[in-house]
Design a protein that fits this description.
The protein is an all-alpha fold. The chain has 20 helices and 2 strands. Helix 7 runs antiparallel to helix 8 and helix 11 crosses helix 13.
Length: 481
């Protein structure tokens, strides 16, 4: 005899997956699972229910009985991961024609698992794919995160092949709004009663998915609200003395990297404190390297540079003090040998990617403290730009590492005045777009503005003026992945 359905599914006259303690179909719908009827004794204790509960159960039973002629309940064995995902996305009641919606969500989850999960990280034999191994199973347990995953996937499909799909774009927006509302509820609960460890993981995973959605859609995050909202949570995790799961290390590392990346255009945008970045460098160097291709030594140098830049921007230190902090960072970057770095495996292209990040950091340190001081034609600028382009030219066009050159290539493009270098960078950015399916529209538009104004003016306008300037009415976070 099959186990009874939960009260919510019985009340809505739909098939229940009978998962305990809560039905996954209720979770995916964003409903509160009302539990299962207690029609048996436990530990020889009679369980009593209130009049309202008994009445609700009787109503649910009558509705379930009336629909039994059209629906035969069966109790199958434990589902596989993919089957469990499919069971958890029943978005509409069976009283409406929801077959098409369910099939579409099945397709979105399959596309996420096979395509997006492959496009995001750099494959390595020593590191599992976190988007497939961590995010997808976690999404089965929370409707907000599930909708975040569906929104990201629908967005990726909508812009694929450069032919916007209006229906899929609408679906992406709908799923995204559900994820944002769910995230807002978690933050409110955090303020009132605090979050459990599992809820903290869900909150961080949801924000990461929303940030990736921004990157996929346009490459910009409006006002950086998502990252700002969980900066305190990542800091609290970093300060905790307990051991951290691989999932938690991955989430904190990814969000910390994106915060540091947006600080490249303006150090005042940094929301994560230095202690969080120190935690990532000490505890998650492999995760950092595999996800983004940046060696921990370069990550630490950028972190110290940006921390000093934020203090300088806040007028906590003056120009001479700032320069004293920058000089050893610059010397360290110049002396660091990528051939002697520690990498996830023996592939020689790790060193090429590391060298590109090294010169990206050098270009940034040269723009401190006065971004207008050094022209693009200066040999120091040209040398680092050429080094980044040489690293990309030495890397196989179809290498999985090539997609991680997107940020170094952007910085090189923003610092060059050479038309043939600009053309080569455009070709590389377009190729990465094809590799990942992410549009990178903000990169192309930003570089186009920089190059056009540079042709019209003799002054070398720093690219930060287009992303983080007092002359801009609206400032957004430019993110690259």
């Amino acid at each position: 005899m099959p186990e009874p359905a939960c009260a919510t599914c019985r009340r809505k006259s739909r098939r229940c997956d009978r998962r305990r303690p809560h039905c996954l179909r209720c979770i995916s719908k964003g409903l509160e699972c009302e539990g299962y009827p207690l029609c048996f004794k436990m530990y020889n204790v009679k369980t009593q229910t209130s009049y309202k509960s008994r009445k609700a159960q009787r109503i649910g039973a009558r509705r379930s009985a009336s629909s039994s002629a059209n629906e035969e309940d069966t109790h199958e064995g434990p589902p596989t991961r993919m089957q469990e995902a499919m069971l958890s996305i029943q978005l509409n009641d069976l009283s409406t024609p929801a077959k098409g919606d369910v099939e579409e969500v099945h397709q979105l989850l399959a596309y996420y698992e096979t395509t997006i999960c492959s496009a995001l990280p750099v494959p390595s034999s020593s590191f599992v794919n976190p988007f497939k191994s961590y995010i997808l199973p976690l999404a089965h347990t929370d409707s907000g995160l599930l909708n975040g995953v569906l929104g990201l996937t629908a967005c990726h499909l909508a812009i694929r092949d450069r032919q916007p799909n209006s229906c899929m774009a609408t679906n992406a927006l709908q799923h995204r709004l559900v994820a944002i509302r769910s995230m807002s509820s978690l933050l409110i609960k955090e303020q009132r009663t605090g979050l459990s460890s599992a809820e903290e993981d869900i909150a961080l995973a949801t924000v990461l998915t929303l940030v990736l959605h921004d990157i996929c859609e346009c490459g910009m995050s409006t006002h950086g609200a998502h990252l700002n909202g969980v900066a305190f949570l990542c800091s609290r995790i970093a300060m905790a003395s307990s051991d951290h799961s691989p999932l938690r290390l991955f989430l904190v590392t990814a969000l910390t990297w994106f915060d540091l990346l947006r600080g490249f255009s303006g150090a005042e945008k940094l929301a994560f404190p230095p202690d969080t970045r120190k935690f990532v460098a000490e505890k998650a160097a492999l995760t950092l390297h595999t996800l983004f291709g940046c060696p921990v030594e370069i990550f630490e140098a950028i972190s110290h540079m940006m921390s000093a830049g934020k203090m300088f921007w806040a007028k906590d230190i003056d120009t001479p003090e700032f320069q004293q902090l920058l000089d050893p960072i610059h010397a360290q970057l110049q002396a660091w040998d990528p051939k002697k770095g520690h990498y996830p495996d023996e592939d020689v292209e790790w060193a090429l990617l590391a060298n590109a990040y090294r010169h990206t950091a050098i270009l940034r340190v040269l723009r401190f403290p006065d971004p207008w001081l050094i022209p693009c034609t200066d040999n120091r600028i040209r040398s680092s730009v050429e080094a980044i382009l040489d690293s990309s030219a030495k890397m196989s066009w179809h290498s999985p590492y090539f997609k991680r050159l997107i940020f170094p290539l952007f910085v090189a493009g923003a610092e060059t005045a050479s038309p043939h270098q600009q053309r080569y960078i455009t070709l590389c950015v377009d190729h990465i777009r094809e590799l990942t399916g992410f549009t990178n529209d903000s990169i192309s538009e930003l570089l186009g503005k920089i190059w056009e104004d540079r042709r019209k003016s003799e002054d070398c306008i720093p690219w930060f003026e287009y992303t983080c300037s007092v002359n801009l009415q609206r400032q957004h976070d430019y993110l690259f992945f």
